[in-house]
Amino acid sequence: MLGIANRLVLAASLQKTPPVRAFIDEDGIGPGNWAGGPVLAGCDQQVAYVSYNGRVWLPGTPPRSV
């Protein structure tokens, strides 16, 4: 991989996802290198996912917009 450490970002809302874009832009991550952005609540329970374009998705297939 790229040798870039994972980051945990606390957010009050999922309406906007600028920390994701900042992480991608600052480290020069391309879409092929984006491993995803799980959104966790409580005791590390995944409640959503942030895609490369900053869109928030509910878990499951097919992805559904939040």
What's this model, at a glance?
With 66 residues, the chain is of the alpha+beta class. Helices cover 15% and strands 24% of the residues.
SSE topology sketch:
Blueprint: H1 18-27, E1 37-41, E2 45-50, E3 56-58, E4 64-65
Antiparallel strand pairs: 1-2, 2-3, 3-4
Q: What features would you describe in this structure?
A:
- With 66 residues, this protein is of the alpha+beta class.
- The protein has a domain at 36-66.
- Helices cover 15% and strands 24% of the residues.
- It is built from 1 helix and 4 strands.
- The chain has a 4-stranded antiparallel sheet with strand order 1-2-3-4, with no helix packed on it.
- Strand 2 (45-50) and strand 3 form a beta hairpin.
- It is globular.
- It starts with 17 loop residues before the first helix and ends with a strand.
- The mean pLDDT is 77.
Taken as a percent bin, the fraction of beta residues is 15-25%
Mean pLDDT: 77
- Structural category: alpha+beta
Q: What is Rg?
A: 12 Å
Distance between the termini: 30 Å
Ranges where pLDDT stays below 50 over 5 or more residues in a row are none
From the spread of the alpha carbons, the general shape counts as: globular
Report the order of strands and helices: HEEEE
Q: Tell me the number of strands.
A: 4
Strand order of the largest sheet: 1-2-3-4
**Largest β sheet strand count, sense and barrel closure:** 4 strands, antiparallel
Looking at the chains present, what oligomeric state does this protein adopt?
single chain
